[in-house]
Each structure stands twice: as structure tokens, then as C-alpha cells.
Amino acid sequence: MINGTASVPSYSADYALTDGQSLYSTMMLLMMERHGIYETELRADYASMQARNNLLKDMNSALATMRAERPNDDKTVKAYGTFIDSQGRTRSVYEFMQANGIAIETNNHDVHGIQAEFDAAISNLKAAIDSANTEGQMAVISLQGLLDKLNQVTELTSNLLSKDEKAKEAVIGNIR
């Protein structure tokens, strides 16, 4: 698991060649810098994905609550209810939907509705869940791309170290 709080070391190859470093050292600095950039992006995407997953859990809990509280006829007025969110807090379905920009009836800002209002709110919440799922799928694709780039940088670094080691061994072998 990627730790979102760990610090990423900062490397810069901007002035490496002018400071008299070898080409291998400069290339290593570049690879380390690139690795740090990808790792930072990966952590940010991972945190975003966790937040989206928590929102989806909350949306599904709110949807289950609304389905359970839905009146059986057109004349009965019932409260939208409450649910336990992903953080363990009790939340009002009405307030949750308002806070997340999901349309729900707003007559006098009450937390009660009739069957038709429940049906409309359930439909709106389903649409929001579908949208969040689609965003999540796109985020997974992006995350996979970043992981591929990170793996490529790691492989390039490994190859660079191997070639540097072979070159040093050849020089030492020629000196003997």
C-alpha cells in the first residue's frame, strides 16, 4: 500500500553535468527525479480514489436507507431517514444529498417526502452513483498508466546501474 504521508526525497539533475558529475550519475539523478514525480502523482491519485470509494459507500448506504424508508402509497409522508457513513457517523440522507449536490425535493427544506419524491430522489442518487463509478473506472486506468510509468523508470534505473557496474568492472579488469 502506498503511504500518502511519507515524504518524497527531492533530487535535481539541473546542474549535475556542470558540477562535474559523471554521465551515469546525472542519469541516475534524472531517473530518481522522475521516479519522485510519478510517486507523488500516484499518491495523489490513490488518495482521490479512496475519497471516491468512501463517497460511493456513503451513496450506497443512503440509497439503501431511502429504499427501506420509501412509503408504500402516494399519500403517506415519511422521513428520508439516516445512515451510518464510511467514517462511522450518523448522517441524514436529505442533508447528505444536499451537501453532495444530488437533487432531492426542497419544499420548505423538510426531511420528509411522499412516494413520488422518494422515487425521484432514488433515481437521482442512482445517476450520481453511476457517474462516480464511471469516474472511478477512468481513475483506475490513469492509475495503471502511472504504475506502468513508475515500473519503466525503475527498470531503466536498474538497467543503468547494471551497465555502470559492468563498465566499472571492465575498467578495473583492464587496469589489472
List the helices and strands and how they pair.
Layout: H1 23-69, E1 78-79, E2 82-84, E3 90-92, H2 93-99, E4 112-113, H3 115-175
Antiparallel strand pairs: 1-4, 2-3
Helix pairs in contact: 1-3
Describe this structure in words.
The chain is mainly α and 176 residues long. The protein has one domain (23-175). Helix content is 65%, strand content 6%. It is built from 3 helices and 4 strands, in the order αβββαβα. A two-stranded antiparallel sheet has the order 1-4. It has a two-stranded antiparallel sheet with strand order 2-3. A hairpin with a 5-residue loop joins strand 2 (82-84) and strand 3. Helix 1 (23-69) runs antiparallel to helix 3. The protein is rod-shaped, with a radius of gyration of 27 Å. The model is unreliable at 1-6 (pLDDT under 50).
Percentage beta strand: 5-15%
The spatial strand order of the largest sheet comes to 1-4
User: Can you summarize the main beta sheet?
Assistant: 2 strands, antiparallel
The tally of strands reads 4
Total helical elements: 3
Shape: rod-shaped
Which structural class do you get from the secondary structure elements? Answer: mainly alpha
Low-confidence stretches: 1-6
Mean pLDDT: 85
Rg (C-alpha, Å) = 27 Å
Gap from first CA to last CA: 47 Å
Helicity, as a percent range: 55-70%
The domain count comes to 1
